[in-house]
Design brief:
With 341 residues, the protein is an alpha/beta fold. It is built from 11 helices and 11 strands. Helix 1 runs parallel beside helix 9. The structure holds 6-O-phosphono-beta-D-fructofuranose. The site of 6-O-phosphono-beta-D-fructofuranose (F6P) has 10 residues, from loops.
Length: 341
């Protein structure tokens, strides 16, 4: 009889809602469907460097579907990063520890940075499967990452709440959501929350266009405005996007302007049903790939289908909002100011 496979799982990079649902999806499928052995690796790639493992059985994977964060912990450890002391030793150490632990495969759950590390480990000859997560929804090759829907829900609810206080005080409210490079969250939350101005890193804005738009709104009897921005839009170094834009608007429009930075609230708490389903399905599919020994792949969603693509194709590429994305065009059609002519 063939020996049962032993798989390691880790969560790396910034946390997001749905990580535990994915761990449960991987773990339960591996144990119950295939009789595999499952080992949790602590704190992302750090756990692999330090042989820091948590054995996982079915009982330890029960009751975590709805939990925020990750029961394994996470870190931003990048073993292939060139500018640290052990630059050449870390990948070698990971290879040795992988062999020592007797892993048949490691499932790496993470965003762009993690998929890059995963593809480099696969190129070093380890059996690796990637599962994409991030509230930024910017992993190349998949239509959606889990975490995004939960963050979208939180951001939209926050914008809804800002509407009423903005109206009471006849103020302009600037709300900053996460997204250093990709504006998916700002675009989706801005549209779902009825933002009047939406600024994303992919589209270069002109502050004069924004201020003229807000002045026209005020003159036409609209007493308040909501401005939704991504943290990664152009701004002076060392200043938050919200602080900068709020100052520029107050100065240029002459209406009292307040800012809100949503921050880590977007990454915490229980995943939405959509994220629970996506994370569970990604997890289950990852184990099907392991059972078929289709290593070196990342699980992905295209339309309604879950399938996979080679990690080496994904390797650190970003999925950005295209200039003429249909939602950008729809926003413009609805009279939303995107900060561009
Ligand atoms: O997880 C992605 C992300 O949320 C970005 O949008 C954000 O800029 C970044 O992580 C910040 O995370 P940390 O402070 O944990 O490095």
């Amino acid at each position: 009889m063939e020996k049962a496979k032993k798989i390691g799982i880790l969560t790396a990079g910034g946390d997001c809602p749905g990580l535990n649902a994915a761990l449960r999806g991987v773990g339960k499928t591996a144990i119950l469907k295939y009789g595999m052995e499952v080992v949790g690796i602590s704190s992302g790639f750090l756990g692999l460097l330090h042989n820091d493992y948590i054995p996982l059985d079915e009982a330890s994977l029960s009751g975590i579907l709805t939990l925020g964060g990750t029961i394994l912990g996470t870190s931003r450890e990048k073993p292939f990063k060139k500018n640290h002391q052990l630059a050449n030793e870390k990948p070698q150490l990971i290879k040795e520890n992988y062999q020592k632990a007797g892993f048949d495969c490691i499932v790496c759950i993470g965003g762009n940075g993690t998929m890059r590390t995963a593809s480099l480990l696969a190129a070093e000859g380890l059996n690796i499967i990637g599962i994409p997560k991030t509230i930024d929804n910017d992993v190349w090759g998949t239509d959606q990452t889990f975490g995004f829907d939960s963050a979208l829900y939180i951001a939209t609810e926050s914008i809804d709440r800002l509407h009423s206080t903005a109206n009471s005080h006849k103020r302009i409210m600037v709300i900053e959501v996460m997204g250093h490079h990709a504006g998916w969250l700002a675009l989706y939350a801005g549209m779902a929350g009825g933002g009047d101005v939406i600024l994303i890193p992919e589209l270069e804005y002109d502050i004069n266009i924004i201020n003229n738009y807000l002045k026209t709104r005020a003159k036409s009897g609209k007493p308040y405005s909501i401005v939704v921005i991504a943290e990664g839009i152009k701004k002076p170094k060392g200043m938050s996007a919200a602080t900068y834009i709020a100052e520029k608007i107050e100065e240029g429009v002459g209406i009292e302007t307040r800012k809100t930075i949503l921050g880590y609230i977007q990454r915490g708490g229980s995943p939405t049903p959509t994220d629970r389903l996506l994370a569970s399905s990604f997890g289950a599919y990852a184990v099907d790939l392991i059972a078929r020994e289709e290593y070196g792949n990342m699980v992905m969603k295209k339309g309604e289908n879950i399938s996979s693509l080679p990690l080496k194709k994904v390797g650190g590429k970003l999925r950005l909002v295209p200039e003429h994305h249909s939602l950008v065009e729809k926003a413009r059609g609805l009279g939303v100011c995107m900060g561009t002519p």
